[in-house]
Design brief:
233 residues, alpha/beta, Rossmann fold, 7 helices, 7 strands, binds S-adenosylmethionine
Length: 233
């Protein structure tokens, strides 16, 4: 097991994704995802949820449903202090119709055969159970990811589900400004310049992006850089 990080460090990483700071280059998409997931969590009917988090090493969205969860199972390839089950998402070690909710955020892009993961998630969800998915559609290549996803591909992957809602995590304007920020961060080669950028240009770009996105009404979504998906079995 990787014990290089403490539980509180993982939880802090989760909080940084759930409630990102303006100094985070991904602020525009993270803030929109949190808004979307907050709305979805308010719509959940049961107070006794059995939840599976696939790729659940960090669990940013667990606090949104904490008071309605009977059991929270975190599954990941990597064994860390927050992971309950070490396994591949392509072969979930659970019998069918087990979970009320499956959360799978920013994980599908790492898997060679995303359709296998979707079929497994469908299998272990109870009839009527929900999947909350979040995937990138445009982002720099950190070297270990395999895919980016567009709405039509998501619809094909989730064809077995009876209801699929695909929401952009911000429109094209937010996508443009977020892309600027993640590119600037790549260009900052030294820790000192990265730090300077984080506390100067980065919040400026985020703020500007948020203002212009609001002014544009988020109408154009051709360059959405991330999508949230609610799928119901
Ligand atoms: C970018 S992290 C996302 C963590 C968290 N879900 C979030 O939204 O912040 C991707 C996670 O997926 C896990 N992962 C990648 N491929 C996997 C696979 N085939 N099966 C299970 N977990 C996998 C990685 O180990 C990593 O913890």
């Amino acid at each position: 097991m990787d014990k290089s990080q403490t539980v509180s460090q993982f939880m802090q990483q989760g909080r940084d994704r759930l409630d990102p700071s303006l100094t985070n280059p991904n602020w525009l998409v993270l803030r929109e995802r949190s808004r979307i997931f907050r709305r979805w969590s308010a719509q959940l009917k049961s107070a006794e949820l059995k939840v599976l988090d696939v790729g659940g090493r960090i669990q940013p969205y667990r606090p949104l449903i904490a008071d309605r969860t009977r059991q929270y199972v975190a599954l990941d390839l990597r064994s860390t202090l927050l992971v309950d089950v070490m396994a591949r998402a392509e072969y979930l070690p659970f019998s069918e119709d087990q979970f009320d909710l499956v959360i799978c955020t920013q994980m599908l892009e790492y898997v060679a055969e995303p359709s296998l993961v979707m079929a497994e998630i469908f299998r272990v969800l109870k009839p009527g159970g929900n999947l909350w998915l979040s995937v990138p559609s445009a982002a720099p290549d950190p070297g270990e990811e395999l895919w980016r996803f567009l709405p039509s591909a998501l619809r094909a992957l989730l064809a077995a589900f009876r209801r699929v809602d695909i929401l952009p995590e911000g429109g094209s304007v937010a996508g443009l400004f977020r892309t600027m920020n993640v590119c600037f961060e790549i260009f900052m080669r030294y820790p000192s310049t990265k730090l300077m950028y984080r506390y100067s240009l980065c919040p400026l770009i985020n703020g500007m992006g948020a203002l212009l996105e609001k002014a544009s009404g988020g109408r154009n979504q051709q360059f959405a850089v991330n999508y949230s998906v609610l799928a119901q079995k």
